[in-house]
Specification:
The chain is of the alpha/beta class. It contains ten helices and 13 strands. Helices cover about 40% and strands about 15% of the residues. It binds NADP nicotinamide-adenine-dinucleotide phosphate (NAP) and guanosine-5'-diphosphate-alpha-D-mannose.
Length: about 325
């Protein structure tokens, strides 16, 4: 079999960068779609630019998607692009729907027109479970999204299932629980905390303002989760899978551990701030990934403590070299 080609939308994001690394290691030709901006700063994939191809396209534009998929001729498409920050989805609900919901249909339409043999991965989310109807959450758990983002992801999930059933396309929906890394955007709570700890430790800040400290999440490592995306597209049958660690922790616990890595007591620095509370919260997420383990042989390899420590140490190192401290 010749070299396989993978197209990644959202290659500049956290998951896009880890997935590109994983696919390169498997011998793929990797093509990443980016949208046009006036400056070309793609810091998460800077180390890969000599080994991947970058093409221009936008999930909002049907013709760009169809032309691009026709030109690239991918064997596999990973649709990771989305407006992915939950609070922004209340401020920009229509745009979130355009990117995160209808964007999925545009990619699927392009595949339907170009070649139904292309395999498709949709980046679905545990946010779809929202006000959870069952604990732990699994593939059969009913959805009850709590944000415009979650609602858009439910649409993306079902349109993926629908194209699989309507057109016999190998389309899968990976229902991934929160996954983090040192490449996580700084607006998400884990990276906000690891960056905040490093700033306080190095004397660049004296407090960290957060919202709901009692929210519980099932946090894993992004590098483990992109492996699951790839495994889903290598299986004989297209299907949907929950990907999670099966453990849950509060934001408060994350803070306690992260500050402890730097030898600090979080209670002295963390300030609860109403500005970071959400109109509707997802209180508890904990996933049951036993189907992925049984069918795909997937299991997470990085534990919670290791994840927290790695993130804090990476921010300390980055800020030290940046600030010359
Ligand atoms: P991320 O870091 O926010 O990356 C999002 C990517 O989407 C960026 O590359 C962004 O490009 C791109 N994008 C946004 N709008 C676009 C548009 N209109 N056209 C083309 N590209 C566009 O997100 P992530 O954490 O890597 O997550 C990847 C996917 O998994 C997302 O769909 C997210 O919703 C989903 N997900 C994430 C998690 C998690 O815990 N990380 C869990 C479940 C599901 P720019 O660089 O140009 O902004
Ligand atoms: N961002 C943020 N900032 N969250 C805070 C803060 C804060 O200052 N303080 C408390 N939190 C709480 C939020 O209220 C939420 O309950 C939890 O921390 C996690 O928030 P985020 O890290 O922003 O992630 P998320 O769970 O809303 O969404 C992420 O995970 C989803 C999968 O469940 C994103 O990556 C989504 O794209 C993804 O689908």
């Amino acid at each position: 079999m010749g070299k396989r080609t993978a197209l990644i939308t959202g290659i500049t994001g956290q998951d896009g960068s880890y997935l590109a690394e994983h696919l390169l290691a498997q011998g793929y030709r990797v093509v990443g779609m980016t949208r046009r901006t006036s400056t070309e700063v793609h810091e998460r994939i800077e180390h890969l630019v000599d080994r991947i191809e970058i093409v221009s396209g936008d999930l909002l534009d049907q013709s760009s998607m169809t032309t691009l998929i026709g030109d690239v001729e991918p064997d596999e498409v990973y649709n990771l692009a989305a407006q992915s920050f939950v609070p922004t989805s209340w401020n920009q609900p229509v745009l979130t729907g355009e990117f995160t919901a209808l964007g999925v249909t545009r990619v699927l339409e392009a595949i339907r027109h170009v070649s139904r043999k292309i395999r498709f991965y949709q980046a679905s989310s545990s946010e779809m479970f929202g006000k959870v109807q069952e604990t732990p959450q699994r593939e059969q758990t009913p959805f009850y999204p709590r944000s415009p983002y979650g609602v858009a992801k439910v649409y993306g999930h079902w349109i993926t299932v629908n194209y699989r059933e309507s057109y016999d396309i190998f389309a899968v929906s990976g229902i991934l629980f929160n996954h983090e890394s040192e490449r996580r955007g700084k607006e998400f709570v884990t990276r906000k905390i690891s960056d905040g700890v490093a700033r306080i430790k190095l004397g660049l800040s004296n407090e960290l303002r957060l919202g709901n400290l009692d929210a519980r999440r099932d946090w894993g490592f992004a590098g483990d989760y992109v492996r699951a995306m790839w495994l889903m597209l290598q299986h004989d049958e297209p299907d949907d899978y929950v990907i999670a660690t099966g453990r849950t922790h509060t934001v408060r616990e994350f803070c306690r551990l992260a500050f402890a890595v730097a030898g600090l007591d979080y209670e002295r620095y963390v300030v609860e701030d109403a500005r970071f509370m959400r109109p509707a919260e997802v209180d508890l997420l904990i996933g049951d990934a036993s189907k992925a383990k049984a069918v795909l042989g997937w299991e997470p390899q990085t534990g919670f403590e290791e994840l927290v420590r790695t993130m804090v140490e990476a921010d300390l190192k980055r800020l030290r070299s940046f600030a010359g401290v």
